[in-house]
Structures are given as structure tokens and as C-alpha cells.
Amino acid sequence: MNMPITNPLRVGLRQERVISPQCLVVFGASGDLTHRKLIPALFELFNQRRLPSEFAVLGCARRKWTDEEFRRKMAIAIGPIASENQNSWDQFASGLFYQPLDLDKDNDVFLLKKRLEDIDRLRATHGNRTFYLSVSPDFYGTACRSLSLAGLLDDPKRSRLVIEKPFGRDFASALALNRLVQGFANESQVFRIDHYLGKETVQNILVMRFANTIFEPIWNRNYISSVQITAAETVGVEERAGYYESSGALRDMVQNHLTQMLALTAMEPPGHFDPEAIRNEKAKVLQAARLADEMEPWNCCVRGQYCKGGTDSMPLAGYREEPGVNPNSTTETYVAMKLFIDNWRWQGVPFYVRTGKRLAKRISEVVLTFREAPVHLFDAVGGSPTSNQLVLRIQPNEGAEFRFDVKSPGSGMRSRPVEMEFSYEESFGEPSDEGYVRLLADAMLGDPTLFTRNDEVEAAWRLYTPLLELIEDSPWQLPICQYESRTWGPAAADALIAQDELIWRRP
Ligand code: BG6
Q1: Which domains does the chain possess?
Q2: How far is the CA of 277 from the centre of ligand 1 (A)?
């Protein structure tokens, strides 16, 4: 019997979630993402017994590997997890297959089709397929065209496309890519992945906001004076200069991960908990967002690049000294900017967004600072109040904290800020799944909630267009500021936020 994949619409996050029989086809199977993230995530799903027995993975890439070689390479790549669970690995690996494929060759694509039909017979995967494009973005178009030509995208209930970032490199290219993809597939078949949405703590922004009565009434311009969204990394560019040099922090982190955190933090409550209702609200809020000064973006944005730093015993190279990086590179490894959202909820509230590599600490968080008390009752007796702050800790030390003032013990009325804290680890005891576990499962379930829709991606690019154009057309107006490795970024970023008499949180 032919069983279609569950209807992707209206599945939502709330229903019983059983992955239907299917074959996951990974394009770019010899690449880094496949062995670092995808295969470990699938193995985790297998160990959690969340994969159906009628399941297969077909790895595809140009290399001429056999099934056996692919299995062996994946076992080596994921390391001890495979050898420590040898029985499970053997069972899981028996569902891994490999097909050499050059997407430019029509004949290869017909061989792929034939191979998929063989796998359907062997593994009872019922013609259901999820195609994962883990290839260079230059091949997204070719992949869609080839799959469509071979009739592999014809049935929207049986075939899906998962597309990795970057989805375009500016508004025009994202729009063109959306049109191209939609020429071959329905939007309901397309799953644009942003791994931040797979993080428990990012999803928790929705639950904190919409499952509690205390937050929503004060989640607006009447009570919140500013918002900071940070994704700070301690690592440098590592071995990814080839990609990063033409991307930079703005395209690599801000347009996608930070913008997704912004959308979840700022969106209106959806009418229902279903994928389209949530994505409608995210798209709407992104359409209302803008750079604080669109005409002169240099007034509201700072770009930085790490230079050398570290200690005598552990010196760290500057970005321009990293392997593969142009010694005169002007690619930014740090961005800070101020945004506004022109709607009733947020009018006038500055949203400060920053990200950087080689910063002092690895930390991603959303910080909401509340307005000061209207009357400083205790000033005269030594208490100068601090603003209340709600910190949503995305990673590490996942959780949340709320800062408020209390009376310091002793005579007088001196106040001091204290924190109330929630920690995922303390409350739930177990580490949460890697983002890819959740996202792969959702893509195979056909649940698009945690994937970005075409209009969201376009709105996110449009938001940064004035800045991208400035960098392209007159970069001297926004020069790159160097910052020492393992510090908190360029001084210009401190000056940016100081204009509003604020400081960046340094957790
Ligand atoms: C990726 C970026 O999307 O996210 C990397 O390409 C970055 O440059 C990474 O290091 C950060 O992800 P995480 O989950 O470690 O915060």
C-alpha cells in the first residue's frame, strides 16, 4: 500500500509525531555538514526509536563511493558514538546507501531516480522522499531543475526539499532563488533551514511569551525600553575562509540566526498554533523592521574584524592572518546595529543586534530591558534603582533570568539588583537535542513551523539592504574597525549603544 507523507499543512508542533516511511536523500553527502551534523542527528533519532523501520538514507555526491565505503566513512566521521553502540550502528548503517551523482548530468539524475525506486522496494519507503540540499548554493537551482526534470518533485505529498543557508546573498538573489525554487516545487514542499530555530531555547521564546500571562501584557513599548540580541562566539573563522570571505558576519549570522531570534521576540501572538499562523506573524514583524537610520546606515551600524590577541602562551592569529583569508580582507567578523520596528507594539524601542567571532565569551541571548520606575522613591535614602531585565539565555547555560531590585539587608532602604533564574539543565536534568535532530525530524514529518518561509527570507534580506548596498557601493563610509581577539568587539560598538545612554550586556 502506498502511504503518503502526512499532510504538511496543519500538522503543527502539537500532534502525535510519527515519521512516515521515507528515504532521506542527502546531496553533498561527502561534505562536512553530512558527517558533522546530519548523520549524527539521524543516528540520534534512530536511537530514540523515532525513525520508522521503513527508512533509508541515500547519500549523493560526485565521489565514486560504494554503499560500504559511505557507511564506513560515516562511522569513522561520527567517531566513538558509532563504535560505542556497535549493534545500533550496524542496524542504522544497513539503511545507508550511496549514489555517485553529478547534478549537471541528466543521466546521473535518471540513475538516481532508478536507485530510489530500488530503495523503495528494498526498504518499503513508499516513494516518499525528503531531498536535503547540503551543497553549495550555486547548485540549488541545478538540483531543483534536475529533480523536477526526473519527476521527483511532482507529488507535493511525497517529496520535500530541505535547503540549507545561505538562501541568497541579498534581497534580489533571494527573490530570484525563491522564484526559481517555486518554479519546480510548491512552497509547501520547501523547508529552508536555520539551525537556530532547532534550538530548544529559541523555541522557548514562543512558550515564554505565549504560555504565560505575566509577560505578554508588558511585552511592548509601554514597558520595554530596549532589546539586545547577541550571538557571540569565541571561535575564529576556522577552516571556512573560502565561504566566509564572501559572506561575513552580516550574511553568515545576522540575516538568518539573529533575525530569527528578533522575529520570535517581537512578533504578535498568532491566532492559532499552526505553522502558517506563526510564520505569518514572523513575516509581518520583519516587514515592519528597519535599520534605525536607513538613509545613513553608518550612523546605526558598526563593522569589525578581529586582529590578533590571546596570551603569550596561547596567541591567536588575526582574521587577515588566517589560512585562506586575503591579507587585505575587508570582510567583517563582527557587526553591531540598531533597528526599529515600526508597529504599535514596538514603535521607538531600539533593538540592538550584535554578533562576532573571537569575542570574549561564547554566548547567545536576548535581553529585554524594562523602563525605569517612574518615580525614584528611594533615591534620597541611598537606593538608585536599576532597570528590570529579562534575559533569555539561548546558549550556553540555557535558561532565563529576571533581574529586579530588592532591599539590601540592614537599616536604610538601599536597593540591590538580584536575579531569579531558570536553568534547563537544573529543571529537566538532561541535555536537549542538537538543533539538527529536531529540524531533520520536523522536515521528515512535514512540519514547517521551524523553517523559514519565502516571504520571511525576503523580508529579512530587505531589512539589511541599505547596509549591504552601502558596503557594496561606498565601503569607506562604514570602515572596518579592528578589535583584539577575545575582547568584546570594537569600541565603536560601545559608542553606538552609548548614544542611547545604554551599554552592551557583558555576561
Ligand atoms: C553557522 C555559521 O550558521 O552558525 C557559523 O555559519 C557559526 O559561522 C554558527 O559559527 C554558530 O552556530 P552555533 O549554534 O554554534 O551558535
Answers
A1: 16-164 (3.40.50.720), 197-498 (3.30.360.10)
A2: 28
